[in-house]
Amino acid sequence: MKKLDKKKDAWREELDGDRYAILFQEDTERPWTSSLNDEKRDGTFVCAACKLPLFETDGKFDSGTGWPSFFQPLDEQNIDTTKDYKLILPRTEYHCARCGGHQGHIFKDGPQPTGLRYCNNGLALDFVPRGEELPPLKD
User: How buried is 94 (Cβ within 10 angstroms: 0-12 exposed, 13-18 middle, 19+ buried)?
Assistant: First the structure.
């Protein structure tokens, strides 16, 4: 995956304050605030910053946590992970592999076949219904 060489200030000009804070300052939205929690139409979830496709509806499930959750990414090459020690115990944080935008955390309490839960900030994603053209990748 080719990474974008784009400064955070450039993203700040393109994204609203909450999206910027989540994607590039690793903030977290409040649970139960994302309209994507209830999104059940067939389609693709793309990074809200660079529009890289990250998840599809068939990989989404209701985790009951208040955040959109997925058990597998569309393509594992589109996700990068790092260790996060902000809550003392280490967690696996994941980002868009293209722009580096923070998406959420991976937990080992998801459904089969992966057993993983990609707990995503809704503001870090845009949804594109099946049949609509995916947005072009942003530079």
Answer: buried
